Batch of 2 targets.
Target 1
Amino acid sequence: MELSIGFLKNVALAVYNKINPILGLKQNIDVIAEEVIIDCLEKASIDILLISEEIGEKYIGNKEKATKSKHKLIVDPIDGSNNAIRGIPFCSTSIAFALGNTIDDITKSVVLDLTTKNIYWAEKGKGAFLNAKKINISDNDISKNCILEINLPMRKIVEELTKYSLITKKFYRIRVMGSTALSLCQIAKGSVDAFVDLVEKSRLIDTAGGILIVKEAGGKIFSKHGNNLNEKISIDTKFPFAASNAKLECFLKENLKKITLNRY
Ligand SMILES: [Mg+2]
């Protein structure tokens, strides 16, 4: 049975109810959030492969049925754990449902802001929403006052910043917010114009929920080499990427290419 968007929202809300009161207070909230999700799936007798940060890959319900259907739930129980533990109000729970083995098979996703209770969600081919309101990417080209979020590896941060200055210097402001899923939703609703995540070990579980929301809002998301992201769905899948409104796609792809080829 395919999971409904309503069910996915309810799972995210169950995480919110448990986690919001303890934001900034507890260390092991990732595990607590994941337990809430597993409990919701088990109570609803769902047969599915759960791919989640703490447990890795685990079949819920009937393994044979889950394998046959190829249904998968890709979850980051808390995306932005450092923010959540320290009480910085930018963290989320991210849930993506897929009907097959690759990123393009994701058909539904929900990202819930654990501070505000705002729910970002999307269904393939039906648009992206913030609560009941349809959302869209911004319309800014690089000549406007564009806002960039950039995530760089902390090791060699100065060298990395210099390396990517070809891109950063064209932007009006830079932000580093700390929850990939929620950051992708900022692109989807047009608050941020581009997000470049150049950390090689950025994981699919962090991005899965946001990818469909960005695409359904009219945004673009691609590898740092400018390719379509259609990686295999797995707990081990990791990749750097860039996401943006439609007008910044060419600018980002061209400049990422120059930087990768060392021609700048
Ligand atoms: Mg997490």
Target 2
Amino acid sequence: MPLLPLARTPRESHLYIALHPCACGEASTGENMRSFLWDFPDGWARKNEFTCPGCGTVRTFVFELPDWPHVEPDAFGADEPSQLIDAGEWLRLAHRWASSVPFEPSPDPKHEKVLKLAISGMDEVLKFFPPDAREDDELPDEAFWTERGRAYRAEQPFGGLRRYRLEAYRSGLVGLAHTPTQTPTPTPTPTRAYRKLKNLWKKGPGRA
Ligand SMILES: [Zn+2]
């Protein structure tokens, strides 16, 4: 069983598993997930094992664990970018989550929860920018290492992966969320963000 890259949080490892369905097509893990901690020479790993509810195959995922697990609620990891899920996948997920709630502030706690997921997803996208990235820099090539992530990048129109566009989209999500989010806001330009938000909404950040 090959060791998968570092899973910064259990939440991130569960998302990774959901993104990699069984050969039978079943993506859910059912109720029988077992998890073991493994000690190996270079550190720690966590083995997740479950029986596919679709076909009965035992499925196993072994993730490397961080030395210091990050436990902040609503976050998929600390400040370092994911090694497990690439920027294209995070962007696709954030768009999918965001477009599943209405384009208006909603008192429904379920909408709130999904919006927070989308915001956390955008936080993950933005972590792939190097600290000195300028606002019109695009996400770097090395942030896209999966086939699905690269395909999603290719679907984004010219300029859609620039930092300010992605930050504007995130800021729009924060504006819609009922309660302020705990995650740090990477200082977008609110006026521009709000002017473009309506266009950005269903279409993703690139098509304004
Ligand atoms: Zn299966």
